[in-house]
Every structure is written in structure tokens, then in C-alpha cells.
Amino acid sequence: MNVRRRARGTARSGQPKLRVGKRAAVHLGVAAVCRNSDGAILLGRRRDTDLWDLPAGAVLSGEAPWDAVRRELREETFLDGVVIALTGVYLVPAGNELLLVFSVDIAPTAPRPSDEFTSFSFVSPDHLPPDLSPKRARQILDAVSLGAPALRVLYGPLRPAGPPTIGRAAAGDAPGRLL
Asked: How far apart are CA 44 and CA 47, in angstroms?
């Protein structure tokens, strides 16, 4: 299918595209960092990859990112949430994706398996599982340790050694690429 025949400003999936120059398009995605009263992060075991991951997905055409993250959370965990803050903006060049990560408060009820996730666990940010979906460790650590949203370009799988610092590249980031 010719890209020019699609509805203006949308990808094949109906996801909005941000035009960068004449040819490149950036797909907009969202992820939710949900913490319980002990500060542990909600992770789900993905059905398709068997990796731990955050509730996440695409922003639909005409949808606000903060509404998209609440929708994805509801679809993937059956939990309702309240968006608290934007915690990071990540450009993933390999997938032409701009990912917005939000801190989301959830009710103290148990998530339920869905089409996306088989099980859930609350995990300390200091003890993230080794089979965490690539790049999520950086996003989780940014969400729990920075006072302002992180702006990063992500290259390859990142396994940070410690908490990020503001003003310089953190472990796992490409030197000089912290925005």
C-alpha cells in the first residue's frame, strides 16, 4: 500500500506519525511506570516475548498521550490509573519511535492477565529482573530518580549500572547523546 494513500498523518496501524523532514516519520508511543505504596514497580510478563515489561503501546490518531497511557494500562492490566507526571521522552532511532513515559498512580487492586501479559509482579527499582525488556531499565530508573523528565536518545539495549545523573550521559548511554 502506498503511504500517500493513507489518511494524512497516520501510519498503517492508525498510530499518529510525526513528520521529520520530507520522508521520515516518528511513531508516538507511551509507557506507564506504576508504583505501589512500597515504591515497587509494576511489571508484566509479556506473552509474545516472555520478557518483563511496562504497560505500553501506541498513541492512536486523535488521542492525547496521557489518555493513551491510561487506555493501555486498562487494556493490558485491567487497572485504572491517574497520570501523575511525564517522566521521560525517549527517541528510539532504530524504530523511528518517540516514546513518552508517564508516572501513573493505580488503585491497590491486583492486575489481571490479558492478551499482552500472562502475569504481574511488583519489583523494587533496585532489583530489576535480568529478563526485563530492553531499554526499560533506563526508563524506570529515570522515572524513580530524576526530578525532571529525562530527554534521551536510546541506542541498543541499555542495562544501566546505577541511577542516572542530570547533565551528563548515564551508564549505558551513548557519550554526548544525552539531550
From this structure: 9
- Cβ-contact 59, 15 below 8 angstroms: yes
In a domain, 158, yes or no: no
CATH code of the domain containing 55: 3.90.79.10
**Is position 117 within any domain?**
yes
Burial class (CB in 10 A: 0-12, 13-18, 19+), 162: exposed
Strand partners, 100: 30, 89
pLDDT tens-place string over residues 92-126: 887 788 999 999 999 888 999 999 999 999 999 99
Rounded Cα–Cα distance for residues 34 and 25 (Å):
29
Residue 166 lies in a domain: no
pTM, rounded to two decimals? 0.74
Domain limits at 81?
28-153
Domains held by the chain: number: 1
Helices (H), 2-151: 65-77, 136-145
Compute the Cα dihedral for 140, 141, 145, 147 and give only its sign.
negative
The DSSP-derived string for 86-97 is EEEEEEEGGGTE
Residue 107 lies inside a defined structural domain of this protein: yes
